Amino acid sequence: MESARKLGEKLLIIEVLESTNQTLRELAEGGEPEGTVVVAEEQRAGRGRLGRGWASPRGGLWFSVLLRPPGPPADAGVLSLLAGVAVARSLRNELGIRSSLKWPNDVLVEGKKLCGILSESRSGPGLDYVVLGFGINANFLVSALPEDLRRSAISVKEVLREPVDRLAILRSILNDLERLYGAFLAGGSAGIISEWKELAVTLGRQVRVETATGLVEGRAEDVDGSGALLVRTPEGPVTVSAGDCVHVQG
Ligand code: BTN
User: Fold this and answer.
1) 5 lies in a domain?
2) Is 124 a member of any domain?
3) Ligand 1 midpoint to CA 222 (Å)
4) What is the pLDDT of residues 157-170, one digit of tens each?
5) What pLDDT score was predicted for residue 212?
6) 250: closest CA among 216, 214, 208, 215?
7) Domain for residue 4, yes or no?
8) For atom 2 of ligand 1, which residue has the closest CA?
9) 5 has pLDDT over 70
């Protein structure tokens, strides 16, 4: 797909804004083409999943990527998994950091969150656009984050004990994203799902998933072709397409 070979060709670097996802969604609504990337040094109103905020101090790598996939709305779920796979690959290849994925796409190092990803889309009969927003704790210490986040977060600077070249990481993620996205458009979701499973630590675990319609608790058994999590609960199997997943201890 020709249009998928250009992620980041148009790169808007903005010093301070509310949210890179918000800015890119506005551009998308105005007809911005696939591949545009918005990067910010600092976000004043960074957005997390489930309507939460996302603390975005200076030194982080905060950016969003616009995709316009030609398939059905259900493809948005796989693209969100794909984004996590791209980050995990880049961390390994670019920085030698081994990470794992918690469904759907939290990137964990030493069990702590190094990167969160917010996927937002608009669809009619088809998928109009998907904005993938990446929040990578890069060149700061977690002491720069609000106190309640510090125990569960980690940064690249803490893992490597030195600051990193954020533009090099961005370039690497965009390359991986483009390759995986191209493979998805050409061959469907199976390859992405299988890579995701190799990196994921959620399957086989007891989980508690907060969804828009309530809490789902049980054993995470699988992800389906659309990236949804299949949870076996005492009441029977439940398919969760979006939510915040906690691995329950023990
Ligand atoms: C999560 O809750 O785990 C997702 C966090 C996603 C944060 C990133 S930072 C860049 C982009 N812009 C936003 O407002 N959010 C995402």
Assistant:
1) no
2) yes
3) 25
4) 999 999 999 999 99
5) 86
6) 208
7) no
8) 48
9) no
Reported as a pLDDT band with limits 50, 70 and 90, residue 1 is: very low
For residues 154 and 211, membership in a common domain is answered with no
Peptide bond into 104 cis (omega under 30): yes
For the CA of 52, the closest atom of ligand 1 is 2
Domain count, the chain: 2
Does ligand 1 lie within 6 Å of residue 116's CB atom? yes
Given a cut of 80, whether residue 149 has pLDDT beyond it is yes
Is 6 inside a domain boundary? no
Are 167 and 231 in the same domain? no
Predicted pLDDT of residue 250? 53
Whole-angstrom distance, CA of residue 90 vs CA of residue 167: 12
Structural domain that includes position 183: 11-199
Do residues 159 and 182 both lie within one domain?
yes
**Least confident among 65-74, 182-191, 216-225, 241-250:** 241-250
DSSP 122-164: EESSSEEEEEEEEEE--SS-GGGS-HHHHTTB--HHHHHSS--
One domain for residues 212 and 187: no
**CA pair distance 172, 98, nearest whole angstrom:** 15
